[in-house]
Each structure stands twice: as structure tokens, then as C-alpha cells.
Specification:
Blueprint lengths: L1 H32 L2 H11 L1 H4 L7 H8 L9 E5 L5 H9 L5 E5 L3 H10 L5 E4 L6 H7 L5 E6 L8 H14 E11 L5 H8 L2 E6 L6 E7 L2
Parallel strand pairs: 1-2, 1-4, 2-3, 4-5
Antiparallel strand pairs: 5-7, 6-7
């Protein structure tokens, strides 16, 4: 009986060792095959303050946000915090063949995901802070932006970082250009009003979480 038990133990140990040695490859395959929603959720649990929401923006939020863009006139569009590219993908579908979309992302996983997900020469993925928008547009040889779109959680940012992004965005837009911001709180509105003056607010309740949309125009 002891010999049988010993044999079963050794067999079990061998199976366990084989299973454990195979775990990394299993996870590697899962990571390569996971969709945008899983990439987003995994990064939310890593740093919830950076993302602000567990799931990407709903199609209702995307449609209401992009409704404010004149696609015939838009040549340069910038987006802050594209994440897994939920909004970026829709922008690329709608914008002109000769337009450029510059996305600013500081999350390593998202940068990798964006560069592998989209094969579009009109897209520039920039692994830098949104506060660098003026410098980046200049480095890319692009003129002022027609539209800037932001979903980064301003309420979670430091005062200096928030001020830097809003101020440099205002400077990077052409006269008549728009800053389109979607948030889960109204905290950023006062900062937007300081630079842009009048700010139009919309709501999208069919989103998790319900979102506020702010439309600012550079005068």
C-alpha cells in the first residue's frame, strides 16, 4: 500500500511540476490573445486612479463626443489617454484621408496595444504626457490642432499637472479649435473656463459611469 501511495505521490508531483512549468506560457498566450476590454480592466486594477473607470467608454459616449467634430475641416486631432483605442478607432474611421491623429499615452501596456492594434499611417502614438502637446506637434511638423480630445481623469491629477495640460492644450489649438473633455465629475470645468471662457456641458447617462462632456472653443 505504501509503495502504491509513493508511486501516486511521485506521479502527482510530476504532473504538478509539468503544470507549473507550463503556467508562464499559458499566461503569455492569454496576454497575447486578450481583447481590448481585458487589457483595459487589467490596467484598471493596477492603477485605478490613472483610468477612473473599469471599462472603456460606451458607444453612446463616443458618438456624442465625436458629434462635435467637423470632419471635413479637421486636419490635426490630438487625443489624451486613448487607453485601448475605443475612441481612437472611431476617429480613424471618420476622419479625412489626409488628416493626422496624434494620441498621447503614458501607460506602457496601452502604448504597446495601440501600436499593434492599429495599422494606419494617419495615427501617431506618442509615449509622452499630454502636457507636451505643443512640443510634440512641432517635432512632428504639424500645425496647430483643430481638435483636442481628453478623457484623462483631471480630478485625480495634481494641480500643477492639470494646469499644464489645460494651458498647453489651449496654446496648441488653432483659433476656433475645440477642446472636447469627458469626465465623471465637474471639477475640471473651472480650469477650462479660466482659459476658454464659456464652456458648454452635456451629459451621457448611457455610460458606466455616467459622463459629463465639456466643449470648449479657443477664441
Amino acid at each position: 500500500m505504501k509503495a502504491a501511495s509513493s508511486g501516486l505521490y511521485r506521479l502527482g508531483s510530476e504532473i504538478e511540476a509539468e503544470w507549473v512549468s507550463g503556467v508562464p506560457s499559458v499566461f503569455e498566450r492569454a496576454e497575447k490573445s486578450e481583447g481590448p476590454a481585458l487589457v483595459f480592466a487589467r490596467n484598471f486594477f493596477k492603477n485605478p486612479r490613472m483610468l477612473g473607470s473599469l471599462i472603456p467608454s460606451s458607444r453612446f459616449l463616443v458618438n456624442q463626443l465625436l458629434r462635435n467634430i467637423n470632419w471635413e475641416q479637421a486636419r490635426v486631432i490630438v487625443e489624451y489617454g486613448p487607453g485601448v483605442g475605443t475612441i481612437s478607432g472611431d476617429i480613424l474611421k471618420r476622419m479625412r484621408p489626409d488628416a493626422t491623429l496624434v494620441v498621447f499615452e503614458i501607460n506602457d501596456d496601452f502604448v504597446h496595444h495601440l501600436t499593434t492594434r492599429f495599422n494606419d499611417p494617419r495615427l501617431r502614438v506618442v509615449h509622452r504626457s499630454a502636457a507636451d502637446v505643443r512640443a510634440v506637434l512641432s517635432e512632428l511638423g504639424l500645425g496647430p490642432a483643430d481638435y483636442a480630445i481628453s478623457g484623462i481623469p483631471f480630478s485625480m491629477m495634481s494641480e500643477s499637472d492639470r494646469q499644464a495640460v489645460v494651458t498647453n492644450t489651449h496654446a496648441a489649438l488653432r483659433t476656433g479649435g475645440s477642446f472636447l473633455v469627458y469626465q465623471f465629475s465637474s471639477r475640471v470645468r473651472s480650469y477650462l473656463e479660466e482659459l476658454f471662457g464659456q464652456v458648454r456641458q452635456q451629459f451621457e447617462l448611457r455610460n458606466i459611469l455616467p459622463a459629463r462632456l465639456f466643449h470648449c472653443v479657443k477664441r
